[in-house]
Design goal:
It is built from 15 helices and 13 strands. It is α/β, with parallel strands linked by helices. It folds into two domains: about 190 residues, Glycogen Phosphorylase B (Rossmann fold, 3-Layer(aba) Sandwich), CATH 3.40.50; about 140 residues, Rossmann fold (3-Layer(aba) Sandwich). The chain has a seven-stranded parallel β-sheet with strand order 3-2-1-4-5-6-7, sandwiched between helices. Helix 3 crosses helix 4. The radius of gyration is 21 Å and the shape is globular. The chain starts with 7 loop residues before the first strand and ends with a helix.
Length: about 375
């Protein structure tokens, strides 16, 4: 860097709730350092849920693109992202840009940086299913982002291996752990959110559903399975924070809205959600992040997908893939409800996703690049 430059300008781009959660520890670490001028850009790909997460982590975006539109197509979203991100990048001209994960926000950020030749760092790099259509469009987004990134902040050795297999230069890959474990530690250290406890004798099944691949028949099959399970098990209570997308909300409320032991609620704040998860008996989800968070809390996870880019917890026996067929879901959940030894085998005393110091390692990579090796 130029000797007259006192700080390194780093832009962090977030657009969805998971991105805010996973980038909050990185943003906080950058802002604690006197070496970096960190600016946060919110694309608002998901407006309400993103805002909720920003508030919980005490983050105020320096720039808000407010791009969410009802029923927006991926093409329209991508074009608006590219146009407005390019303008911001030209105006501020950061020394580096960081984004996390596999959303359209991440892909567009990487591409805008490429067009302007600004170094891009990909947080949570190297996750792969090997199937571009599953999850859609996330697998393509993260694969394309990897062809552009200067720094690949891989969460695990398996992610590093995926990148090496795609001929990413070894010196560009940094295994740092997953920043979601940093966020989890931050949440658990708080004392302003009471721990959720189930009623006496009840076992809580925490459910989250939002993936595009589940829309339509798969989602209806999942709801049928949940209804069957609460009918069969009088001690079972389902807690299901309902995603606001009408493709998710309407079929869930139609199928499950009247059952006394199915609690359909609005999306929870992150800190409360973590405490509900910690007290749950079992999690059933199509989410990616929950496959990382729940094992770290010692809670088994059944994933409503046929493939996952997070194989580490599957390999460790903490997570099972069960798909979306009604019979498969009922059988898998019922087995864990009935068989204590099978259930106990899914609980481990460690997480394969890191030690809660991923943000610290990411910042150190930037320090070494801009201030030590420059």
């Amino acid at each position: 860097m130029d000797d007259v430059m006192q700080t390194c300008k780093v832009m962090v781009v977030v657009g969805t709730r998971p991105e805010v959660i996973k980038m909050a520890p990185v943003i906080q670490a950058l802002k604690r350092s006197t070496l970096f001028d960190c600016r946060v850009v919110a694309t608002a790909q998901h407006r309400e849920l993103m805002d909720q997460a920003l508030h919980e982590f005490g983050l105020v975006p320096d720039m808000d693109l407010d791009l969410m539109r009802a029923d927006q197509s991926l093409s329209a979203l991508t074009s608006r992202l590219l146009t407005q991100l390019e303008q911001l990048l030209i105006e501020w001209r950061p020394d580096a840009v960081l984004a996390q994960g596999d959303t359209t926000t991440v892909f567009a950020t990487a591409l805008a940086c490429f067009y302007l030749q600004i170094p891009f760092g990909h947080v949570e790099a190297g996750l792969r299913t090997g199937d571009l259509g599953n999850p859609f469009p996330e697998e393509l987004n993260r694969t394309l982002a990897s062809t552009i990134a200067k720094w690949h902040f891989a969460p695990t050795q398996a992610a590093r291996s995926n990148l090496l297999g795609e001929r990413i230069a070894e010196h560009r890959i940094h295994v740092v752990g997953n920043t979601v474990i940093d966020a989890l530690h931050l949440s658990l250290s708080r004392d302003d959110v009471a721990c959720e406890r189930p009623s006496d004798g009840q076992r809580v099944l925490l459910v989250t559903l939002h993936r595009r691949e589940s829309f339509g028949a798969p989602l209806r099959d999942i709801c049928t399975a949940l209804h069957t399970l609460v009918e069969r098990n009088e001690d079972l209570r389902v807690i299901l924070p309902v995603h606001p997308n009408p493709n998710v909300k309407v079929p869930i409320e139609t199928a499950l809205g009247r059952h006394a032991r199915v609690d359909l609620c609005s999306p929870m704040g992150y800190h409360r959600f973590i405490r509900v998860m910690k007290s749950a008996y079992l999690v059933v989800s199509d989410s990616g992040g929950i496959q990382e968070e729940a094992p770290a809390l010692g809670v088994p996870v059944l994933v409503l997908r046929n493939e996952t880019e997070r194989q580490e917890a599957v390999a460790h026996g903490m997570v099972q893939l069960i798909g979306t067929r009604t019979d498969d879901i009922v059988e898998s959940v019922q087995s864990l409800l009935d068989n204590d030894s099978l259930y106990a085998a899914m609980i481990k005393d460690h997480s394969p996703y890191g030690d809660g110091r991923a943000a610290e390692r990411i910042v150190q990579v930037l320090v070494e690049h801009f201030f030590i090796c420059a």
